Amino acid sequence: MLEQHLAVLPIILPLIAAPIALILGRSLLSWGFATLISGLSCFVSWQLLVAALSEGVLSYAVGGWPAPWGIELRVDAANAFVLLAVSAISTLVLIYSKDSIEKEIEKSKHTLFYTAHLLCLAGLTGILITGDAFNLFVFLEISSLATYTLVSLGSDRRCLTAAFRYLVMGTIGATFILIGVGLLYMKTGTLNMLDLASRIHFYESSRTINTGLAFIMVGVSIKLALFPLHMWLPPAYTHAPSAVTAFLASTATKVAVYVMIRFIFTIFGADHVFNEMGMDLILMALAIVAIFKCSYMATVQSNVKTVLAYSSVAQIGYMILGVSLVSVTGLMAGLIHIFNHALMKGALFMAVGAVFYRVGSVDIKAFRGLGKQMPLTMAAFTIAGLSIIGVPLTVGFVSKWYLVTGALEQNNWMIAALVLVGSLLAVVYIGRILEAAYFQKLPEDTDPSTVKEVPWLMLAPMWALVIANIYFGIDTSITTEAASSAAEWLFQNNNVQEVSQ
Amino acid sequence: MNLILDYYNYWIVVFLMMTGFYIVISANNLVKKIVGLNIFQTSVFMLYISMGKVTGGTAPIVVEGVTQYSNPLPHVLILTAIVVGVATTAVGLSLIVRIKRAYGTVEENEFENKDDAI
Questions:
Q1: Which residues contact A475 (CB under 8 A, 6 or more apart)?
Q2: Per-residue pLDDT at A281 exceeds 50
Q3: pLDDT band of A176, cuts 50, 70, 90
């Protein structure tokens, strides 16, 4: 009975749990409840991934209305993979947040935090699973509205202006997607993604469809913070509570990257988007500018959260670069990096949150001497930082390896070289923080006895992610198998010719 | 002339869309920004609603002697989008209330000077 409805559970569980978490009213109770629910949806996602890898696509008709009339949920190798990453990170962040939000969010707002977190999770899983273009917009707005609330829970008043700016940009992005979906519906008369994909080929030269494509790509680019449209991201990540930043940085933008992949490969067809519309060159150029401009911006910031926020925009550049290579290896690199970047940024932001918990600041100066005072936190930060750089034996190396391989397959030496040079900039911005932590002394006005390790409930999820960083860096078979079957599936599905130069 | 008359619904949509978009970008007052955002969203509602119209079709209610109906689906979709728009406006306005409490102003250029740029 329950197995039949497995596909809908990752959405329904957190959606129903959100108001219950609010009604529970007590901070500790709703924390336990939210963590339990998030853990359950993580377990369901794992089951779904196993099922999707062995049986192929799982389809579920919501309310018993068959597609294309009803809303269809579709779980395949590509989205089950991202789904597992999102729900696992959500669970770890919830465990971490119990102590972390004590210092950053007022006591009276704790239950609101858990409610908004669950709503955000429901929205994100909805975006991943749904097979309906309009439904995707609705889930996008559910997760975005929860995100604006989460950002505005920060302790600094600047979080309010950051949340407002995010709200304006995010709404424009979502409305652009709505316009695009409307234009597609106008021409094809359907909203189901597969149905759209089968009909869109008849109208490929239609201006309506291409305008829709343009609107959707710009809208999604705002949501995933592709380079010139990323201005909302650094302030939002800087001023949001650390637990929120850790969650958003490792899930929200990744899900938007997935949406872009889905629209390009499943709906419009890679052949049309890349070969006829030439979108790959635009994406590639923007991705490379993102990598360099934002890595550079990260090296000159003094707030460590801002450093990592700019680094996130640069890392999104790597994902989009993988997509823009238009090959199975490139797409696979993009998908692997979605998963890997979630692991590293989650760990990094959790470590920064731990520093805030003890020191009360995330300025680079606050990190002075912490290597001795908080050895476990800083060791976690170091390993995750090395992963961002792409040092072998960490997951960062695996993503960069496939990205470079993808570029070299097409004899694109330029791209391969640029990826490697981009990593050097990561050495600079991570190195600055490590230098302060390990080679500078604790400021003299600070009492060393107050700066000690954080509670184990904060350390455990942080180290879980760090160990995942190393584990998936050494044993790459799980991630690469899942990503390569997802990438091949996406390519085969619309019989696209790979581009080779 | 036909270009204007035949597609008059699109002209209205584009005019409203650009008006709203311009207000969002140029307005200094946060409440005006939300108003602009609303006009922008409303134009999209009108795009959807007007495309559901079938020439010669009536309201989609089964009546004897009528065979052609307008498409009700875009209208239903827009009901959902309106709800989303209302929720966005509510979140935006409540943020403005808190900004006003924290900074004492809702003019963007005034509160930007009160904090260091990040």
A1: none
A2: yes
A3: very high
Q: What CATH number belongs to B2-54+68-112? A: 1.10.287.3510
What would the pLDDT profile of A87-96 be if each residue is shown by its tens digit? Answer: 999 999 999 9
For A95-119, b where at least 16 C-beta lie within 10 A, e where not — what string? bbbbbbbeebbeeeebbbbbbbbbb
Long-range contacts made by residues A272-281, C-beta under 8 angstroms, separation at least 24?
A272/A200, A272/A201, A272/A204, A273/A213, A274/A326, A274/A499, A275/A497, A275/A499, A276/A204, A277/A210, A277/A213, A279/A217, A279/A324, A280/A324, A280/A325, A280/A326, A280/A499, A281/A324
Q: Average pLDDT in the A402-411 region?
A: 88
Q: Does B63 touch chain A (CB under 8 A)?
A: no
For residue B31 the two structure tokens come to 């409440």
Each residue of A42-64: b (16+ CB within 10 Å) or e? bbbbebbbebbbeeeebebbbee
Query: What DSSP state is assigned to residue A272?
Result: I
Domain ranges of chain A: 278-501
DSSP A303: B
Residue A186: which of B30, B41, B51 has the nearest Cβ?
B51
Question: Count of alpha carbons within 13 Å of B101, Cβ hemisphere only?
Answer: 8
What is the arithmetic mean of pLDDT over A63-89? 85
Residue in the structure block whose two tokens are 């409840």? A33
**CA torsion sign, A35 to A36 to A40 to A41?**
negative
Quote the CA–CA distance of A6 and A60 in Å, as a whole number: 9
Q: What is the pLDDT of residues A332-371, one digit of tens each?
A: 899 889 889 999 999 999 999 999 988 888 888 888 888 8
Q: Give the integer Cα–Cα distance in Å for A483 and A479.
A: 6
Tokens 């690469």 found at: A480
* Cα A337 from Cα A322, distance rounded (Å): 9
Specify the residue for token string 């505005």. A152
| Coil, helix or strand at residue A101 | helix
Q: How many CA atoms lie within 13 A of A167 on its CB side?
A: 31
B10 reaches A (C-beta below 8 A): no
Contact B44 A137 (CB under 8 A): no
Of residues A398, A386, A293, A399, the one with CA closest to residue A347: A386
The Cα of A165 is separated from the nearest Cα of chain B by a number of Å equal to 10
- A234: nearest CB among B84, B92, B118: B118
